[in-house]
Write a structure and sequence with these properties.
The protein is built from eight helices and seven strands; from the N terminus they run E-H-E-H-E-H-E-H-E-H-E-H-E-H-H. It is of the alpha/beta class and 269 residues long. The protein has one domain (5-242): 3-Layer(aba) Sandwich (Rossmann fold), CATH 3.40.50.720. Bound molecules: NADP nicotinamide-adenine-dinucleotide phosphate.
């Protein structure tokens, strides 16, 4: 087979959607997953820009382990797809709130989607990736390094992804599969407009709107890092600064958050 196939989870909006356009531009056939009919609009936009690219939308929740297996088996037995060269485990959402105002259930659901959803993506793809000597990418976050007040559930899930990615890099590399850990800072998307269950809240404002990188720019950088089989890529300059501070000047970060937590203006805590 001369064609290449890229699977992206969570491609109905944001980073996943723009990664779909990037990979279409690179000539890959696409399998795009999400839980929403918005996927059809993404497919149509892909096809209006790249009419020759085959795009297969798949409505499936990453929490549904069996559904994910079936979707990947369908892809591999489809004669027009039949292989996997790039797999991007991107689907996720961000729960917020201080420990005392959220519940174990919020933590559990966050881990289910952001961590176990990624495992549900990886396992059924493994043989196909080994066969193609393909590329696996996990979308972490700057919060994979920096656990910030009111963000413990999300940070926990993204720290866990970093641990997963680091370990399996060594395991899969001898089998020809590269693992790229992607750590975005603020990127334009609806992620910060959603509630703790991942549903968009109409009147919510994006507190990072002024700092956020345009989604197409972020997707371009992410695709380039995956294609070059980079082990790690931090997206956005503010993300690089934040991770640098956490790694090399942790006392400064502690001071900053202690100050922020004590501020009378901070009504969230
Ligand atoms: N944007 C940022 O600033 C930023 C920063 C750091 C990391 N990230 C990470 O980047 C990834 C993409 O986020 P985004 O910013 O592009 O947010 P987004 O626009 O909200 O996109 C999230 C995508 O994940 C999908 N998704 C969520 N839960 C899912 C589930 N249970 N099953 C299947 N699909 C699911 C959503 O699809 P449906 O809801 O339609 O199913 C949507 O397509 C996430 O992992 C996020 O943590 C984003």
């Amino acid at each position: 087979m001369s064609h290449k196939v890229c699977l992206i989870t969570g491609a109905s909006s944001g980073i996943g959607e723009y990664l779909a356009y990037e990979y279409a531009k690179l000539g890959y056939r696409l399998v795009l997953t999400g839980r929403d009919q918005k996927l059809d609009a993404v497919k149509n936009r892909c096809n209006s820009r790249f009419p020759k690219i085959l795009v297969q939308p798949e409505l499936v929740d990453v929490n549904d382990e069996q559904g994910m297996k079936e979707m990947i088996n369908r892809t591999l037995s489809n004669s027009e797809l039949g292989r996997l060269d790039v797999v991007v485990a991107n689907a996720g959402y961000a729960s917020g709130g201080p420990l005392e105002k959220i519940s174990v259930d919020i933590y559990r659901k966050q881990m289910e989607t952001n961590v176990f959803g990624v495992l549900h993506t990886i396992y059924p793809c493994l043989d196909a990736l080994k066969k193609s000597k393909g590329k696996l990418a996990l979308i972490g976050s700057v919060n994979s390094y920096l656990s910030v007040p009111t963000n413990s559930a999300y940070s926990m899930s993204k720290y866990a992804l970093r641990a997963l990615g680091e370990a399996i890099t060594y395991e899969l590399s001898p089998k020809g599969v590269s693992v790229s850990m992607i750590y975005p800072g603020f990127v334009k998307s609806v992620i910060r407009l959603k509630d703790n269950h991942g549903n968009v809240v109409e009147d919510k404002k994006d507190f990072a709107a002024n700092l956020a990188m345009p989604t197409d720019k972020a997707a371009k950088q992410i695709a380039r890092a995956i294609e070059r089989r980079k082990k790690e890529k931090i997206i956005t300059y503010h993300g690089i600064v934040a991770i640098y501070l956490k790694r090399y000047v942790p006392w400064f970060v502690r001071l900053l958050f202690r100050f922020q937590s004590k501020s009378p203006k901070n009504k969230i805590l």
